Amino acid sequence: MSTPERLVQILTNKGSLPPASPWADAVAQVRRELFLPDTFEVNDRTFDRTTDPKRWAWAVYADLPLITQINEGRDLGDDAYQAPTSSSSMPTIMLQMLDLLDVRDGDSVFEAGAGTGYNAAWLCHRLGDDRVTTMDVDPDVAKQAEANLAKAGFAPRVLCGNAEEGAPDDAPHDRVLATFAVADIPYAWVEQTVEGGRIVAPWGGGIHHHSFAVLDVRDRQAVGRFAGYPAFMRTRTQLPQGGRVRDFYHHEDDSTPGRTTVNPRDISDDPDTLFWVDTAVRDAWHWLGEADDGSEEATSWWFSSDRTSWATVEYVPGQSEYEVEQYGPRRLWDEVEAAYLKWVDLGRPERDRAGLTVDRDGQHVWLDREDHVIRTVLPAMRIQS
């Protein structure tokens, strides 16, 4: 059985959709297949409605994220890195995000990132078309989302543009929701949210972007904490945070050797550590390459988003020092090590003790209380238009 009822059953069994959830009717009555193309991808598997309609329908009503666009819809060749750029999010994560948003009947919502339109349809079902505005930077995605919504009987305002600038003509909004990850909460969202309103957005740089920032607006600033471990695609206005090692690794013979006593696995294997390191080391990403020979050795790779700098740390079990190589204008491992040692000095706090304040001067990460600011986060590098 591949129907909305099956999705309701799955989500109920998982505890993602309690019977009293205000979103239960939307999940049951909004048909997800109306928001999906004939072909999409799940975990590197392709589902094609034409060749295998039953398998396609099974995936539609599974609790899975469905990739609907690769590389912004451009054909970059078979050898190009396949970067997902639009999707229908995992329903469990959609519900978590909407619960954090704390939508009330009568609220107006600005959704940054229209995607397929499925999330906007849930909002329209709950609040009414006139209470929902959704925006996407990709004109093809925005156009298709609008068409999908119309097929399902909904007509919110669908805009094409940079959603990080908000929708001032529709402001103020009671709630602002982002369906893509940002390294910086745009102050435009704060300005366009009512006093006492809420902003929910996947937040973080390239090292750790698996947090929802849940911020309440008061006195022209947004203040809150972090929740969940979502995995969302990143905004297109900032440099990509990830890719293939071979595209970022270069000038091996010109690198500078060194050694460190910091075990790279103490950073890579701990989400709390990565979160705190990410607040200090921006415009960078990392990957831990595990040896496949049974040695349990690994290489910790660190790359700058602009591809100018990299660092490696060679992990060998049982060692107390590790070999380091660094190249480029940034000494990335030095940055990471300093951020890690700062976190240790703070007493190794978990992410749940962190908070974020966004004001006209930027983003300020604090520990335990708002006046205990640990650092003001540097703005992310932007793609030049």
Descriptive overview:
- By secondary structure, this protein is of the alpha+beta class.
- It has helices at residues 4-14, 24-29, 53-60, 91-101, 118-127, 139-151, 187-191, 245-248, 264-268, 271-280, 332-345, and strands at residues 39-42, 45-48, 66-70, 84-88, 109-112, 132-136, 157-160, 173-178, 193-203, 211-218, 221-227, 256-260, 284-290, 298-304, 310-315, 322-327, 354-359, 362-367, 373-377.
- It has a ten-stranded mixed sheet with strand order 7-6-5-8-9-10-11-17-18-19. A five-stranded antiparallel sheet has the order 12-16-15-14-13.
- The protein is globular.
- The mean pLDDT is 95.
Beta percentage is 25-35%
CATH class of the largest domain: Alpha Beta
Number of helices: 11
The biggest beta sheet reads:
10 strands, mixed
Shape: globular
What is the spatial order of strands in the main beta sheet? 7-6-5-8-9-10-11-17-18-19
**Which architecture of the largest domain does the CATH hierarchy give at level 2?**
3-Layer(aba) Sandwich
Backbone CA Rg: 22 Å
Low-confidence stretches: none
**CATH topology heading of the largest domain:** Rossmann fold
- Helix fraction, binned, reads 25-40%
Q: Tell me the total number of β-strands.
A: 19
Give the helix/strand class. alpha+beta
Outline:
This protein has 385 residues and is of the alpha+beta class.
Set out the fold topology:
Blueprint: H1 4-14, H2 24-29, E1 39-42, E2 45-48, H3 53-60, E3 66-70, E4 84-88, H4 91-101, E5 109-112, H5 118-127, E6 132-136, H6 139-151, E7 157-160, E8 173-178, H7 187-191, E9 193-203, E10 211-218, E11 221-227, H8 245-248, E12 256-260, H9 264-268, H10 271-280, E13 284-290, E14 298-304, E15 310-315, E16 322-327, H11 332-345, E17 354-359, E18 362-367, E19 373-377
